[in-house]
Q: What sequence folds into this?
């Protein structure tokens, strides 16, 4: 096995795999109200094609696969995809990032197929604020989805929250109390410039320091946890533990130097970084009869070209042409 190593010596072990660019919400920092032109079904990788690419990636040292979107649970064959990956020799750890809306219906089947845990996006505890942020009145569905995931054993459950100044930033303490009470791991994520409207405004972003200050003022004592490794979230023990809260300071505290992630879009484009401006087409050679070795070498070439960091805030930064929903989170 030759690991996927870039020119900076970073070894890549984590694959973020998008199943669809479609989503059932319209989060204002991610997608316009009218939606986007969706990728045609025939351009999406099929379940057998996904299985093959993952098998090749596992042979190059990939040890964890996170299924993403868009909203991965909108994919009709999502349970089959999980089952195929879980059935691979030396199967990777399989997790999923979801908005949770269809979790209530699918959690048990996903667990049986081999899914191990979920990250659920929830930006507000208030139903009206949630509806304002997402343009959909589906807050109750998300909460029921979290409960269903707990009952099915898709744990530890992580809840991802993006705070926006003047809208939901005041909720940080309440969200942490809620997360500790129900036994999920809360993670606050700095808003990143990945919206198709290119309307990201740094002044509206709630930063890592903002969150830490708000939690401290609310009476929480936070102590840095050890052993972060390549994880995107910086974790803090809450009031001496065992509860924890995470903060993904992707903009103000970039963790690019320890990044071990690569990405595969739903239409088969292999990317070395969320903010990469280029990508390698795996779908075309895959459908043209490429060998496993040829697919593997395309992965090698893409990882070799990975740059040192995303450069957000610097003059040379270029926002990717693909939005977050098309890349996969």
A:
């Amino acid at each position: 096995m030759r690991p996927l190593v870039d020119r900076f010596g970073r070894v890549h072990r984590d694959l973020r795999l998008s199943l669809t660019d479609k989503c059932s919400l319209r989060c204002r920092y991610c997608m316009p109200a009218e939606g986007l032109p969706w990728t045609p079904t025939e351009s999406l990788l099929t379940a057998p094609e996904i299985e093959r690419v993952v098998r090749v990636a596992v042979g190059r040292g990939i040890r964890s696969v996170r299924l993403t979107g868009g909203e991965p649970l909108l994919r009709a064959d999502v349970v089959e995809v999980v089952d195929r990956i879980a059935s691979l020799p030396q199967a990777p750890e399989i997790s999923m990032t979801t908005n949770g809306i269809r979790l209530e219906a699918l959690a048990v089947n996903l667990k049986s197929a081999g899914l191990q845990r979920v990250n659920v996006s929830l930006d507000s505890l208030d139903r009206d604020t949630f509806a304002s942020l997402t343009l959909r009145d589906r807050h109750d569905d998300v909460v029921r989805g979290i409960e269903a995931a707990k009952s099915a054993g898709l744990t530890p459950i992580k809840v991802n929250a993006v705070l926006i100044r003047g809208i939901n930033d005041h909720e940080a303490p309440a969200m942490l109390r809620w997360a500790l009470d129900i036994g999920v791991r809360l993670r606050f994520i700095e808003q990143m410039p990945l919206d198709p409207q290119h309307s990201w405004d740094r002044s509206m972003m709630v930063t890592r320091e903002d969150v830490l200050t708000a939690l401290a003022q609310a009476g929480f004592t936070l102590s840095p946890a050890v052993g972060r490794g390549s994880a995107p979230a910086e974790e803090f023990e809450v009031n001496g533990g065992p509860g924890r809260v995470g903060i993904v300071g992707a903009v103000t505290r970039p963790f690019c130097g320890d990044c071990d992630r690569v990405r595969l879009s739903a239409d088969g484009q292999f990317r070395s970084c969320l903010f990469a401006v280029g990508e390698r087409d795996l779908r075309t050679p895959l459908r043209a009869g490429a060998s496993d070795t040829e697919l593997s070498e395309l992965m090698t070439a893409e990882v070799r070209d990975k740059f040192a960091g995303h450069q957000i805030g610097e003059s040379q930064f270029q926002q990717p042409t693909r939005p977050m929903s098309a890349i996969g989170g």
